[in-house]
Amino acid sequence: MNKLQNIIIQLSLFAFLLMGGVLLYSAVSGKQLSVTGQTTEYNAYDDGTYQAGINFPSTRFFDNGDGTVIDNMTGLMWLQSPDSITRNWETAIAYCDDLNYAGHSDWRLPSINELETLKNYSQGVYINWLNSQGFTDIQLGFYWSSTTATSLNNNSAWCIAGYVSYIYSKVDYYYVLPVRTAAP
């Protein structure tokens, strides 16, 4: 087996385990995953068949009026208008850790699972949808997560762009969308 095949197998296994963790979290926490919005059945037993999950709240994001928005589905608070500066992974983490904004100093770089919650598969371009939901200045491009890609010697981390997650070197420069857990 060549090196590329080995990496593909490792990434596939990681994705499978990641989804298992998400499903376990949703089962244990009593929370459900959101629907993808696919209503057409393209193949037997695809998401169009089951349309599983919970529907988005009628008002998904609440504008706090202080430069932050709360996701009513997850309880996460996001910076409403992130800057358009790209950073490497280490600098992205430090930026979030040092951020003191809207009276909160517990900002952090989101995990890949937290970034994934911002996806709405029933919509077109994700930045247009997020920017119509209370966010402003979400950039078309990659956003860092705090999740290290351990299958690649810890030198890479997961990023998200649109509806797809990618693994990139931690020395690359991408956007940052700080998050914090809002008080219940």
Shape: globular
Q: What is the highest CATH level, the class of the domain at 60-181?
A: Alpha Beta
* Arithmetic mean pLDDT: 79
Largest sheet: 4 strands, antiparallel
Q: What name does the CATH topology of the domain at 60-181 carry?
A: Mannose-Binding Protein A, Chain A
Which architecture name of the domain at 60-181 does CATH use? Roll
Give the distance, in angstroms, between the N- and C-terminal Cα atoms.
50 Å
SS-based structural class? alpha+beta
Listing every helix as H and every strand as E from the N terminus to the C terminus, the arrangement reads HHEEEHHHEEEE
What is the number of beta strands?
7
Quickly count the helices: 5
Question: Per DSSP, what share of the residues sits in E-state strands of 2 or more residues?
Answer: 15-25%
Parts with pLDDT < 50 across at least 5 consecutive residues: 11-31
CATH superfamily of the domain at 60-181: Mannose-Binding Protein A, subunit A
As a whole number of angstroms, the C-alpha radius of gyration is 17 Å
- Biggest sheet strand order reads 1-2-3-7
Helix percent band: 25-40%
Question: Could you describe the 3D structure shown?
Answer:
With 184 residues, this protein is of the alpha+beta class. The protein has 5 helices and 7 strands, in the order ααβββαααββββ. The strands form 2 sheets. It has a 4-stranded antiparallel sheet with strand order 1-2-3-7, with no helix packed on it. Strands 4-5-6 form a 3-stranded antiparallel sheet.
